[in-house]
Amino acid sequence: xxxxxxxxxxxxxxxxxxxxxxxxxxxxxxxxxxxxxxxxxxxxxxxxxxxxxxxxxxxxxxxxxxxxxxxxxxxxxxxxxxxxxxxxxxxxxxxxxxxxxxxxxxxxxxxxxxxxxxxxxxxxxxxxxxxxxxxxxxxxxxxxxxxxxxxxxxxxxxxxxxxxxxxxxxxxxxxxxxxxxxxxxxxxxxxxxxxxxxxxxxxxxxxxxxxxxxxxxxxxxxxxxxxxxxxxxxxxxxxxxxxxxxxxxxxxxxxxxxxxxxxxxxxxxxxxxxxxxxxxxxxxxxxxxxxxxxxxxxxxxxxxxxxxxxxxxxxxxxxxxxxxxxxxxxxxxxxxxxxxxxxxxxxxxxxxxxxxxxxxxxxxxxxxxxxxxxxxxxxxxxxxxxxxxxxxxxxxxxxxxxxxxxxxxxxxxxxxxxxxxxxxxxxxxxxxxxxxxxxxxxxxxxxxxxxxxxxxxxxxxxxxxxxxxxxxxxxxxxxxxxxxxxxxxxxxxxxxxxxxxxxxxx
Length: 506
Fold this sequence. Notes:
Blueprint: H1 8-15, H2 17-46, H3 49-69, E1 76-78, E2 98-100, E3 107-111, E4 116-119, H4 125-132, E5 137-139, H5 150-155, H6 163-166, E6 173-180, E7 185-188, H7 194-199, E8 208-219, E9 223-231, H8 234-246, E10 253-258, E11 264-272, E12 280-281, H9 292-298, E13 306-311, H10 312-316, H11 327-330, H12 337-343, H13 351-356, H14 360-369, E14 371-378, H15 382-392, E15 398-406, E16 420-430, H16 439-452, E17 456-457, H17 467-473, H18 477-485, H19 489-492, H20 497-500
Parallel strand pairs: 1-2, 12-13
Antiparallel strand pairs: 3-4, 4-8, 5-8, 6-7, 6-8, 9-11, 9-13, 10-11, 10-15, 14-16, 14-17, 15-16
């Protein structure tokens, strides 16, 4: 697709973006990974993070108290640049807000007796899985991409293929520590300041600044025994998907990838310590390995299910190397066998660097012809939802991940008196092929379907809902109560809608 550019530099960045990615961003990404891995390892081994945590939190409090002494004419946000977060968009509100510097990047404590890990909000999933693996531990829910942070997954949300058992990322968090708008430090859990505890998830930093989280961990094994179940009819796949998700004793991991409206592959998995005789070892994390989603697609050619054994950490981050399937649009030959052997060890580029070097013309192109959305609907509406998505946008592959929503206080209110309700995350990331696709109207059509079927929208992506529609989608009863109870909260922070609606993102 031809895109109008305003300069020669921008033209090169748009038309030959893969050159910039390979020659500049991949080497820079590698250097950053080496440095951050080494730095995190040293800090963890020296146990210096817990000693420094108190000082770092005090500095956050000092900055807020300085704001309190002023005229408080601006609101507060973190000083972390928008290009460093995982949302595709950059937040325009940061230009006018007072920025609070928060350098909270460390794992503070691993308690193998109580099976918890305490960490700061900018700790990443890759950092946690790398640290926990040698100890025989893992998070109960590990969202796929290495670069996702604990803070982002708490203040936003996170889902993974174990979420049909454990729920969303927020459901494995046992305690939050925050600095509030009055400069005070507070901890909250189910038993302490419980209203705040249940209100924090999905709140997008509109109560205070998260400074640490205590998270549940579970015993880990070496491999995942993964079984691939190909389907060529949507109705059969949807039935099988519901069956596996709702079992009384389900597999530990369940997900599916659709490659067309009818054809997809359901995957079920369990942790094991040894490679069995019923399948082969597939080390998908090796630098030369084919992108995982293309390996999954190859199983559509088979008429029967296949079993593989995948190293646990490779499985957790199976979609990282190709950023699900987004990287095929940035480096079209990235899955070529020659490229994988020569440059696969550099992959993937840091998402933050991709955003930092993205010219306005690419942003405009993405506005017109690219979709990144995760919509969450009750699992009984899966088949209907896939048809709606196909008609409105037609983006494949399409990711399907089941997750449990517990009947707890907070913004996710379920329409049942049961303890929980099963939902499915429908993830679409790519170029829409639907006839008549138009970004706003097509997205609005899907949003309307989600609201009408008592679903939710992940807020890292574009939301075109009005404030009233947004409040219909998310229950603000507890949220408003907590906001009203916290001194200076409304002065310091906008409501969630003020940080996530399309008008405040570019």
